[in-house]
Amino acid sequence: MENHYNFKSIEPKWQNYWAQNQYFKVSEDPNKPKYYDLEMFPYPSGNLHMGHVRNYAIGDVVARFKTMNGFNVLHPMGWDAFGLPAENAAIKHGHHPAKWTYANIENMKVQLNSLGISYDWDRELASCKPDYYKFTQWMFLKLYEHDLAYKKSAAVNWCPSCQTVLANEQVVDGACERCDTVVTKRNLTQWFFKITDYAQRLLDDLEILPGWPDKVKTMQRNWIGRSEGCQFDLPIENSSEIMTVFTTRPDTVFGITYMVLSPEHPLVTKISQGTPQEEQVKEFVQRMQFVSDVDRTSTEAEKEGVFTGAYAINPMNGERIPIWIANYVLIDYGTGAIMAVPAHDQRDFEFARKYNLPVRVVIKAADSPSDGESMSEAYVEDGCMVNSGIFDGLSVEEGKKQVIAYMQKEGVGQGTVNFRLRDWLISRQRYWGCPIPMVYCEKCGLIPVPEADLPVILPEDVEFRPSGESPLNYVESFYKTECPACGGPARRETDTMDTFVCSSWYFDRFCDPHNSSAPFSKEAVDYWMPVDQYIGGVEHAILHLMYSRFFTKFLHDINVLSCDEPFTNLLTQGMVLKDGSKMSKSKGNVVSPEDIINTYGADTARLFILFASPPERDLEWSDQGVEGSSRFLNRVWRAVTSCADDIKGISLPAQFGELDPEARKLRYKTHATIKKVSEDIEQRFNFNTAISAIMELNNMLNAYLDQDEQDLSVLKEAIETMVVLLSPFSPHICEELWQICGHQQSIYHESWPRYDVEALIQDEIEIAIQISGKVRDRMVVPASVSEEDLKVLAVAQPKIQELLAGKEIVKAIVVPGKLVNIVAK
RNA sequence: GCGGUAGUGGCGGAAUUGGCAGACGCGCUAGAUUCAGGUUCUAGUAGUCGCAAGGCUGUGGAGGUUCAAGUCCUCUCUACCGCACCA
After folding, report:
1. A1 band by pLDDT with thresholds 50, 70 and 90
2. Which helix (H) or strand (E) holds A179?
3. CA-CA distances (angstroms) from residue A389 to A311, A341, A393, A408, A413?
4. How far is the CA of A636 from the C1' of B52 (A)?
5. Chain B: bases < 7 Å from a protein Cβ
6. Cβ contacts of residue A824 below 8 Å, gap of 6+?
7. Is the reported ipTM for this assembly greater than 0.90?
8. Is the N or C terminus of chain A more exposed, i.e. has fewer CB atoms within 10 Å?
């Protein structure tokens, strides 16, 4: 037998075997518990990177482990295949995005298979294929039908480089998340999904997701950004207009000393008209248009503004309040207008000091300032209302309630809830995306494409322009159409959908991927959904996961899905780093999975990436570490092959009679390892410690093999257990070793071992003896010794006697199975 | 600024419920095998004092609770991530 396992021949051999025998193909089986194990489907960029390897290695361990535990495991893979890189490649190199994309898919599929991941390839899907995007369009139509898709003109984020709009979520630090170009504003008519209708539910239901990391739930909570307060109206002096503001601090309403509109607010022109300040207002508004959002909204930006010349009337006390416009008020939050209470809001305070506006204290605690003039910062803590008429003396909390009640009674305002979440802008002015199934008819207006006419096919024969403008605008055969309602001439929508739409329901499609009449059958999704374990990078914590939850809730509401949340458990894996930073071409620190697989084999690559770090933490790539994993697999290979012939004839389970101490120890270790590995995989996802436990078993096995004689039943049990436990991590070598041990059936069809409680009973245990918390000695005692006897035995140890000489024993604490602590003085 | 996560040997990490800190692996040192090198095997490997037995110190820092603290509490430093003028 060879001294090294030959991964170059063994790995492809088993990959072919699995594929030919359709090992990973599953269908609904009502007799088995189902388990839906899903890794985030990749964008087909061309090559797998180490992050993918980590993601799919984790998912594969779970899939194989669950299968061996008797679950009917759905483990599918597909491609998030629409998107900008394909189109950019087309513009740059002249290849059609489809050709580029499909070539990449082919390549990455080969790479995935060379890793030995257990996918049911019969369920493969690609979001750019008409049989898939037909139903993405169907989703759009359903949303439209339920008034959750609408068109509106709005100032939108525009990336001048990508020549397309971006969702708020895709703008990072004021720049395009994809190309880092500074994002500008444009007024465009665009399609939106009304995700805000689901804001409260998206927030509330985070509570019913105990299987999600708190970090992700917190991020979603912050993104939804619920705040409670009230909205109320202020009449504008000498005008029929009113201004409406939102505030979370109605208790400070008597402290208003000025009002602020955002520069984009529609009232600005109206109320400043004819005032002496009209010109300066115009100038300010114009100037603000050219200040980018990054600069506008940065905390460091100096607050500035101008007086409009108009006044509002405080409905609570009739006071006349100057209306300003300022950069620090945003048009798209709340009502785009605020009441300013400089005494109790730091931003208002800074602004008031700069422009010499009055500061009036209306909340007072025992040690808080009472004089606005001398304050150096806003007082935002708790206290009681003062200078507030009939509300004086109320606490902040009580004051909020009473003021809202009063406003409601007087008809000037009411309690409201505001969210920071905005509607989801889904229009993209690009070619390589899912066409929006709408037409514009001169007579009938906006008309949805009838379901029966889906899919609206993305034309293949198009010309790409360096400008980046969507080629669809120039394809007459595409945009020229008939109105589905009146049959007259009509024009198709030429914008395509944000790719996040495609990825918001793919997990449903995997349940029934070949259905041509519906996105999926109710039976299929009722069997498989929700996803039991979802695994992917934390970078999708907000966008993809929020959109998918929204889609799931909507599909639930229209009764095509039973579940209300798509992902029961979520594992967010850390990044793979090299030399302390993220792998990237520009840094030149990229490690190619292909090279690693060629040099060390897939089993080694998988093992290392799982061993080096727990999955949620970032992982530092180490070539030397990979060597170590390779060495371990070779040690396993040698241990198993060296004794395979001796144990072949032994049948298990055996009756274990009187065993010598070494055999007993090995048997104990075998079963302790089963327990440890099972719990580490199932309860903690700590694959690193599961693997180290298998290494320990292998170490003890090797020591046992060095002995002159072995108990072959114990040996066989240890050897085969080790191979089975290792098989989800490094499946190829384990298949081969399993066969070498004389088994006809694939290890994939083995049941996961159960530990024998009897084997875990030890006759003797080592007990640490502490004196006042410091370990001073150890003793080996029979496991059955009582607590009282343990104390006596501990004190009787010669070394302990020595140390206790002249001291009085105050008490002794026994931790069963672990230690005795003698407290002496 | 707010929110979160983390900080343990030369390195990756372990210690799961307050109970023996450093499992497992890498690296390193010495030796054996082979000998051109790699592979493989054995022993050692937190710091420090000591010939040794053994002692002392030690989980970012400072306090505290406890028989017992990497783990709990208070304060604090650092790194990373998310949000950021959200009224």
Report:
1. very low
2. none
3. 22, 16, 10, 18, 18
4. 40
5. 1, 3-5, 11-16, 19-21, 23-27, 39-42, 55-56, 67-69, 81-87
6. A771, A772, A804, A807, A808, A809, A810
7. yes
8. C
